[in-house]
Design a protein that fits this description.
Chain lengths: 226, 545, 370
């Protein structure tokens, strides 16, 4: 699925309208992200950010209608199933498979690249080394600290070479000092890997490294307008 | 201070309740290990008895695990497989089912008379028949409890993550969710494995008898009074325990192989080519579900027909006479046994629920969780081995000579075994329930239990119902402890059924089996009413916020 | 939670009711706990009839404790200390079980003196010997058993009443897979071996003496015969019906063409009750049939011996024996003189000495349970 990826093609989101079954509606402006560029979306909890993210990811949601389009370069992807959409996602906690080791978790993301056993081990070791996590291959997620988990979750998402990575409140659950550190690293890493990303958070500080910002718009009500 | 004392006393009592049987079993274990020269090894056919028992344990465990895994994997997506068909089979008391199964499906049985050219291959007294009945009974058990276990895993997130990383839903299921589910199911599968390797009641009715499997063989030794047989029983006890250990190892091996296979596939490069014949599996599971449902319904009808008909000789499809009045008389005659069975089962259900609730609350109060294994260890040892060890403990046989003691002992044993099963269903649900409401209630000035009753119990309604139901059903089905500890004072429908099925009659066992079935069905109906379908965690795919 | 309340209330009610019914029973009537095999509806019904009569006439509450095998009760009795009271008041017993209890001194003696109806016992029957163990007043006969074969009439010539072992072998050769016999060491299975041994041994009178050291050699003709027969049996002689009752069930289902009974009246009685296919007839295995008795005995440790003796007295009454012999019920022949026509009994030979049991059972198991 990822082999179609055209180098340096940008991610383009058309104007997008979310219409909930209960009448609530939100309209988002169009936006374009170059590789390595990050969009920070801020809004209070409960405003519908996560619903939007799940739509971007391709999850079926029967309580909301979304009108909008997603383009990777010239290719429209919003009709593709999750596994073919070349979109990654990182969540605050339960991203990693707890019953598999770090190496297994990362290997899962590398499947598409059809590497040999040795090559695969080299890639994993090299990447962990670069993150300062050398020798972590055989650890289980429960043996990692919050910051380590966050880094490995993002690394796993990146290793699958997606066009776009979605981060849903990725720094929740980290203490203040580490939060800052992980936050800075995340932006730097995404830039370095040249992957477009959308970060959603309720905290403005989390979005300081984003090139583009979007304040989640006030929701209207269709019935009021009528 | 007084409250603290009450807690301490209650908990001490519960701990004594749980621990006493272990101490007694240790006392009763004769350290008469069957050495190389023991007469046990000279018993005719002992080799066959051991190998067939292990074969029975391994194949029943393997088959029911495989089938349950497939059902669970499919029930995740398809609506039809979620239905109550399997629960219906689950609800059928195994012994009643076995009797109907034999009558329907063995050569010259009813189906054979109806469709003579159909060869099913289920002989009377055969290993294949026994394994089939075990698999039919254990698959629904694993599926029903497997769904509960699955609900405790964030499997929807994992599936989503797997899809995000490019795997199809199917592939994500088998590579990521399945090994975790199997690990979660370990104790339940061990319980199934232990049961299959040391099964007594169904083996007596449907299994091979020349030689019998280890369970019935040991049981027959224990029930004979000769010195030689008592000695064989003492040595055979170790054999059954060893078979239990073997089965635990087998379950671990199953799990390990799956994990290894999945890890291998996880790393292997490749797209989502169809590596399982998905469509074919779906169709066969659908078909199997209908077959199971049909066999279960037909068995129920067969028992009813066998209860009412007399003179059902080959090759007749219908009996010579339908005798409604006589059947009713016989059913009325079994009323004292029904009362005894009900009293025992209800008393067990209530006692187990009270103990379980107290124990869980105490753990929550102290903020300390003991590992599950301590509470369900009773399921990990062949029941027959335990009961025989108790009987060989010095203090017990004397006690059980008196009717009141036999009552208490049997009740105790029922509670003890039912506790383990109910723990499996109640503890996880309780653990998932927040203590917040209870604490809120206490902050409003209610006492602990009052607060529990008003604020926490409503949240646990289904779990409590399920706990009552499980312990009721377990008590209903107990054979070995009732026969051996009740010393003839306690006759339940299950012991009557086994005793009668060694006879020539069809009708009386059929009536008893029908009553047993009706009781189980009533219990299930009473507890199922209004219970919502299990709600899997849908944090990501469901409505948020 | 309504169900929870309901369950709780029901339990309390049931307990109260049970306690009440037990205690009120105990106050009015003398209970007698009768340990007896419970595998036959007719026998159970007969005992139930008896308990109704006993309650009405003698104020005795006869409780039938149904056991799958009376050895369960023997185990209990032998496990208790000799001086300890037990709750077993009456036993339906014979053979090895009797021998074990008699040897351990667990049975009440001098029964003929304490049960007046014992004087009516038939003298023409040799009941004083129970499988080679002298009865010596420790048990009283209750009924008669004679081993007969039940065979599908289509396999026999009309009017045939005797089936010699050689004829059986010939039948099995004609229709392989249609015959079987109850598995030793079940009661009927061992009896079948004994009956065959009487027919096949060169000197059958050896069986009346204690089994010698070289019992295996003496039994060689029996094993030769079975080696020939087994491959022609149901399931190739690999499995056997576990009891005679199970074999009757298989007969009715059409799986096998023969069964075994120890009750001379049984074929007619069962057919009348639609519990045996109408095409069944009984024949004797050889010209003489193995005959034995089943008995009633009272444990010495029973607390209610007088009541138990009264029950025996009742069971040996003409009325009770006559009802027992009724083919529409149990159909067990009477052991006391009654006017009714007696059951059809074949010329008999006695049970072998009890020590042959072991030789036959162990020999069979070692050869055929593999």
């Amino acid at each position: 699925m990822n082999k179609h990826r055209a180098a340096d093609s940008s991610v383009e989101l058309s104007r997008c309208q979310l219409l909930w079954r209960d009448g609530k509606q939100v309209e988002l402006p169009p936006c374009q992200l170059a590789p390595g560029e990050t969009l920070g979306v801020m809004g209070p909890s409960g405003c519908g950010k996560s619903t939007w993210l799940r739509w971007l990811l391709g999850v079926q949601q029967d309580y909301v209608d979304v009108a909008g389009a997603i383009y990777f370069g010239s290719r429209r992807v919003d009709h593709l199933p999750i596994e073919e959409r070349s979109t990654g996602m990182v969540m605050q906690d339960q991203s990693l498979f707890p019953h598999y080791s770090v190496a297994d978790n990362l290997a899962f993301a590398l499947r598409a690249q059809r590497l040999g056993r040795q090559q695969r081990q080299q890639v994993i070791a090299g990447q962990l080394d670069a993150l300062g996590l050398a020798g972590y291959q055989q650890r289980l997620p429960q043996q990692l600290s919050g910051g380590e988990k966050a880094r490995i979750s993002l690394l796993r998402a990146v290793l699958a070479r997606p066009q776009l990575i979605l981060l849903d409140e990725p720094f929740n659950g980290l203490d203040a000092a580490r939060r800052r550190q992980v936050c800075e690293w995340t932006y730097a890493f995404l830039r370095e890997q040249r992957i477009a990303a959308i970060i959603v958070s309720h905290d403005a500080a989390d979005l300081s490294g984003a090139q583009q910002r979007l304040q989640w718009p006030e929701s209207g009500n269709r019935k009021d307008e009528e | 201070m007084r409250k603290k004392l009450a807690w301490t006393m209650a908990i001490s009592l519960i701990l004594v309740f749980l621990a006493l049987p272990w101490l007694l079993a240790l006392q009763g274990l004769s350290w008469n290990l069957p050495g190389l020269t023991a007469e046990l090894w000279r018993y005719p056919g002992i080799g066959t008895a051991i190998t067939t028992s292990l074969l029975c344990g391994v194949s029943a465990t393997l088959l029911s695990t495989c089938l349950a895994s497939l059902f669970i994997s499919k029930s995740e997506g398809s609506r039809q497989l979620k239905g109550s068909g399997l629960s219906l089979t689950f609800a059928a008391p195994h012994l009643a089912f076995a009797i109907a199964f034999l009558w329907l499906l063995t050569p010259y049985g009813w189906i054979d008379r109806l469709i003579p050219w159909l060869t099913l291959g289920f002989e009377q007294q055969s290993l294949t028949t026994l394994i089939t009945i075990l698999v039919i009974k254990e698959t629904p058990f694993l599926v029903v409890l497997g769904r509960q276990q699955l609900a405790q895993l964030p499997h929807q997130q994992w599936l989503l993550q797997a899809q995000i990383l490019g795997a199809s839903r199917t592939r994500g299921w088998w590579l990521v969710v399945f090994p975790a589910w199997l690990r979660q199911m370990r104790l339940l599968i061990i319980a199934v494995a232990i049961y299959s390797v040391a099964v007594v009641d169904i083996a007596l009715v449907a299994g091979p008898l020349n030689p019998p499997l280890l369970g019935p063989l040991l049981m027959s030794w224990q029930q004979q009074f000769g010195v030689a047989e008592q000695n064989l029983a003492a040595q055979g006890l170790w054999l059954v325990l060893a078979a239990g250990v073997f089965m635990v190892a087998w379950v671990k091996l199953q799990e390990w192989s799956v994990k290894r296979l999945c890890r291998g596939l996880l790393r292997r490069a490749g797209g989502n080519h169809r590596w399982l014949p998905e469509g074919a599996i779906s169709v066969s599971l659908q078909l199997l579900k209908w077959v199971l449902l049909a066999v279960t319904l037909l068995s129920g009808l067969a028992l009813l027909a066998m209860s009412l008909g007399q003179g059902w000789f080959y090759p007749r499809l219908t009996p010579l006479e339908w005798q409604f009045a006589e059947a009713w008389q016989l059913a009325l005659g079994s009323l004292p046994v029904v009362v005894m069975t009900l009293a025992l089962a209800l008393a067990t259900a209530v006692m187990v629920t009270v103990i379980l609730v107290t124990l869980r609350e105490w753990q929550r109060l102290r903020g300390h969780e003991f590992a599950d294994i301590w509470f369900i260890a009773a399921l990990l040892i062949p029941q027959l081995g335990l009961v025989i060890a108790w009987l060989q403990a010095e203090s017990l046989p004397v006690v059980s000579m008196h009717a009141e003691h036999a009552w208490l002992l049997t009740w105790y044993a029922h509670c003890w075994f039912a506790f383990a099963y109910s723990y499996l269903s109640y503890a996880p649900a309780e653990r998932a329930c927040s203590q917040m409401h209870l604490n809120l209630g206490r902050s409003l000035g209610y006492g602990y239990w009052k607060s529990w009753w008003y604020f926490k119990r409503p949240a646990l309604r289904d779990a409590l119902k399920h706990c009552l139901l499980v312990s009721f059903l377990v008590s209903l089905a107990q054979y070995v402890p009732t026969v051996l500890l009740g010393s003839g004072y306690i006759q339940t429908l299950t012991t009557e059924l086994v005793a009668l099925s060694s006879g020539a009659e069809l009708r009386l066992p059929a009536i008893i089996a029908s009553v047993l079935w009706v009781l189980a069905a009533l219990a299930i109906l009473m507890t199922a009413r209004g219970a919502p379908a299990s709600a899997p965690i849908r944090k990501l795919t469901g409505r948020e916020e | 939670m309504r169900q929870f309340h309901l369950a709780l209330r029901m339990t309390v009610v049931v307990f109260l009711w049970l306690t009440f019914s037990f205690s009120s029973n105990a106050a009015e009537q003398q209970p007698v706990r009768f340990y007896a095999w419970g595998g036959s509806a007719e026998v159970n019904a007969y005992i139930e009839w008896a308990s109704t009569e006993l309650a009405a006439e003698h104020g005795i509450a006869l409780e039938h404790v149904r056991v799958a095998d009376i050895s369960e009760a023997v185990t209990l009795l032998l496990a208790a200390r000799p001086d300890e009271p037990v709750a077993i008041d009456l036993l339906w017993i014979n053979g090895e079980n009797f021998a074990a209890l008699k040897q351990a001194n667990r049975l009440l003696g001098e029964l003929p003196r304490q049960v007046p109806n014992a004087v009516n016992l038939r003298e023409d029957l040799n009941w004083q010997n129970d499988f080679g163990t002298p009865v010596d007043g420790y048990e009283l006969p209750w009924g008669i058993a004679q081993l007969q074969l039940i065979v599908r009439s289509s396999r026999l010539e009309t009017g045939q009443t005797i089936l010699a072992p050689s004829q059986l072998l010939a039948l099995a050769q004609q229709t392989p897979g249609r015959f079987s016999y109850p598995k030793p060491p079940s009661f009927h299975g061992t009896s079948w071996l004994k009956a065959l041994a009487f027919q096949l041994l060169e000197q059958p009178e050896q069986l009346l003496e204690p089994a010698p050291q070289h019992a295996a050699e003496v039994l060689a003709p029996l094993w030769r015969y079975l080696d020939q027969l087994h491959p022609l049996l149901w399931r190739g002689g690999e499995e056997f019906p576990v009891t005679a009752a199970r074999q009757r069930q298989l007969y009715n289902q059409g799986v096998v063409d023969n069964s075994v009974t120890f009750n001379p009246n049984e074929v007619a009685a069962l057919q009348q009750q639609l519990k045996l296919a109408p095409d069944a007839v009984s024949v004797s295995l050889g010209s003489r049939a193995l005959t034995n008795f089943h008995y009633l005995a009272v444990p010495v440790a029973s607390q209610r011996q007088q009541a138990a003796l009264q029950v025996i007295q009742f069971f040996l009454s003409a009325a009770a024996q006559q009802r027992k012999a009724d083919p529409s019920g149990w159909g067990d022949p009477s052991v006391v003189r009654i006017d009714e026509s007696q059951a059809r009994l074949f010329p008999s030979h006695p049970e072998p000495h009890v020590s042959w049991n072991h030789a036959l059972e162990q020999g069979w198991l070692a050869r055929y349970q593999r």
